[in-house]
Amino acid sequence: MNHPRVVVPDDFPQVIARSRAYRELQERASVAYFDTLPGSEADLGARIADAEFVINIRASSKFTDYVFQHAGHLRLLSIWGTGTDNVVPTPHSAGIAVEVVDTGLAPAVENVWSFLAGEPANVVAGSAP
User: Fold this and answer.
1) Given the DSSP bridges, would you call strands 97-101 and 123-125 parallel, antiparallel or unpaired?
2) Mean pLDDT, residues 31-41
3) CATH number of the domain that residue 41 is part of
4) Which residues constitute the domain of residue 37?
5) Which of 29, 45, 83, 96 is the most exposed place for a label (fewest CB within 10 A)?
6) What is the mean pLDDT of residues 83-99?
7) With contact defined as beta carbons under 8 Å apart, do 5 and 29 qualify?
8) How many CB atoms lie within 10 A of CB 71?
9) DSSP for 25-60?
């Protein structure tokens, strides 16, 4: 069975690594986890290059045209927070859905499974599967 490729590119300071939801995510997906902030746009692009799903933790990670151009497999950008001000431009033109989850990691992880099932929740821009 192919596991979805999920990237957490920016968990610093760490908030996800110790959570139950993260452990469940590791059991059901192929997860690339970074406990440092990307140092540049190029670094962020490299971190998410093979991702289908990104769970973005820190608003300091800017999702720009350059970053999206290097994320050829990306289907869903899940932003853990309350806004999308770190996403410039709107990625829906590339067929990437964006969701905002302000209630914790567990809902963000569950939304990955909902997205795969064709029932995305909290999508604010982009296309559904």
Assistant:
1) antiparallel
2) 95
3) 3.40.50.720
4) 5-125
5) 83
6) 68
7) yes
8) 25
9) HHHHSEEEE-SS--SSHHHHHHHTTT-SEEEE--TT
Tokens representing 69? Answer: 């151009």
Identify whether the C-beta of residue 73 lies closer than 8 Å to the C-beta of residue 96: no
Candidates 54, 34, 42, 37; CA nearest to 96 is 54
Q: Specify whether the CB–CB gap between 51 and 32 falls below 8 A.
A: yes
Rounded (5°) CA angle 71-61-53:
40
Residue 28 makes CB contacts below 8 A (sequence gap 6+) with 3, 4, 113
Closest CA to 56 of 119, 88, 98, 93: 98
What's the whole-model pTM score?
Answer: 0.82
Is the CB of residue 48 less than 8 Å from the CB of residue 76? no
- Name the residue type at position 6: V
Residue 113: pLDDT over 80: no
Q: How many domains does the chain have?
A: 1
Which among 26, 30, 38, 24 is positioned nearest to 6, based on CA atoms? 30
- Contact call for residues 21 and 109 (beta carbons, < 8 A): yes
